[in-house]
Structures are given as structure tokens and as C-alpha cells.
Amino acid sequence: MRSPSSSSPTPPASAPRPWATRCALQFPSVPFERRLIPFLRTVEEAREVREDLDAAADSEIAPLVFLTVVDESVRQEPLRTRAPVIDFVSGHLAQLEARLGVTGDHAPARLHGVGDSRRYNRRMQAVEFAIEHDDGQSVRAIEKADVILIAPSRRGKTPTSMYLALMHGIFVANYPLVDEDLAGEVAPGSISAVADRCFGLLTSPERLTAVRSERRASSRYASLEQTRWELSRARRVYDTHGIDFVDSSSKSVEEMSTLILQSLARRGTTAR
Questions:
Q1: Fewer CB atoms inside 10 A, N or C side of the chain?
Q2: Would you call 181 helix, strand, or coil by DSSP?
Q3: Which helix H or strand E contains 236, and what residues bound it?
Q4: What is the distance between the terminal CA atoms of the chain, rounded to a whole angstrom?
């Protein structure tokens, strides 16, 4: 199998959407070059994309098209390309219409509409909350947090917080575990009143050393001895206080967020 340049006309004519990406990941030996073509709305735009795909189809490595266009007049153009097309819409949408007994409106970019304004507003509020409460900058209204991520410095607290806020509307604060906390095996004093909402992050000492070295190479902060000590002490904090945690060494932000959401569901701590 030749290495395809994965394309996907529609909001993206290239670069597969998440579900297409998951399909591609099932072929780890095949390198995929992702290309995104967003907001494909008109027949003229679709025709230009088809012409580009036809030209690419004649090259040494033909593109593989992941098609997610729902507008029927627009989708006909990429369907005419000589490049192979995997259509994520037609079969699935037809099955849904048959099951529901209702014809979909085939409106493009439906996912991107505000839709439920209450849910949209919550997500925006959650992002603002995450920014204000990033890295222990503020404890104002900390009691509104659904979850508080705690971990040694440079352990992925900020991207995980932002993902949970933006994608799920979860109010997340994150707080660094510093030497004083770790030495005493205690949760940070500023958030002790809401320690039951804490969730910990861990990794391997080698990974943490590598990440810290990008910022402060050859420092005590980035030394393997220091990261081993901090991570072992952080694990003791989690165990001592019954704090759920995840080892992020081989997990993506999405995977970690899923585990955090599952923990919140078990504890019933998302009030809004």
C-alpha cells in the first residue's frame, strides 16, 4: 500500500476528522500526510478541490479522500474525482433517516453552530475560569471548580484543563505541587477545602526530565533525581488523600480527559 496523503473534502476536504483519524491510526506502518480543506460551501469551491485531487491522483502518491460534505450539490464534485473517496456521510445519514423516519436537512457546518446557547455559554465560561485558575494564579471562587488538577510542574495540567473546558464545559482549576507540599505529603493549603475535587497527574521521571530540560537544561529542576523525588512524593500525596490520578506517560490529552470525566461521573462532582 502506498503512503497516501489523506484528504477529506468538506469542512475538511483533507485531514480526516477525528473518526477518520482513528481509522488511519489502525495502520501504524503507513505514513499519512494530513491536509485540511475547511469550510467547503459552494459548488465552485468543490470543483477547484476536485481538480486539485485529480491532479494529485496522477502523481506518484495518490491522495485518499475522507468526504464529510453534507450539501448534496457540493458533495457531487469531490465524488467525481479520480482519487479514491471514503464517504462518511451518505451511507450513515441514509441509515439515520430510515431509522428515524425523518429526512435530515443536510445543512453544512451544523456541528459548528451555536445550537444550544446555554451549553455554548457554559463552555465559554469554563474557558475563562480555566485561564483565571491556571497554575495556581488565583483561588477566587475556587469552590466553583468541578475538578482541580494537581501535579508537579510541567506535567500537562494547562492543556488538559483547556481541553476539558472548551470541549466539555468543565470548570477546571489547576495547581502545581511544589516542594513544600511534596515534602509534607499534603495537598496545597490554598485548595485544602476542596481537596475532594482534586485529580492528580503523573508521568515517568525520564519524560518529565526531558520536558523540563527544554525550558531549563542542566538545572536541578530538570534533573532526573529531582523529577524522581517529585513524582514519588506526588504519588504519596494522591494515595494518602485518596485522590484519583492518571499516568500521562503514554496518554493523549483526550485520553486523560476521558479518564477525568469518568472519575467526575463516579463522584458526582459536576454540579452545573
A1: N
A2: helix
A3: helix 224-241
A4: 49
With CA atoms as reference, report the closest residue to 25 among 201, 252, 247: 252
Dihedral of CA 259/263/268/272: which sign?
negative
Q: What does the buried/exposed string (b/e) look like for 205-224 if buried means 16 or more CB atoms within 10 Å of the residue's CB?
A: bebbbebbbeeeeeeebbee
Q: What is the pLDDT along the chain (272 residues), one digit of tens a residue?
A: 333 333 333 333 333 445 666 677 778 888 888 787 877 889 999 999 999 999 998 888 878 998 888 888 898 999 999 999 988 777 777 777 787 888 776 666 555 555 567 888 899 999 999 999 999 999 999 999 999 999 999 999 999 999 999 999 999 999 999 999 999 888 888 888 888 899 999 999 999 999 999 999 999 999 999 999 999 999 999 999 999 999 988 889 999 999 999 999 988 765 44
Q: Per the confidence metrics, is the pTM higher than 0.70?
A: no
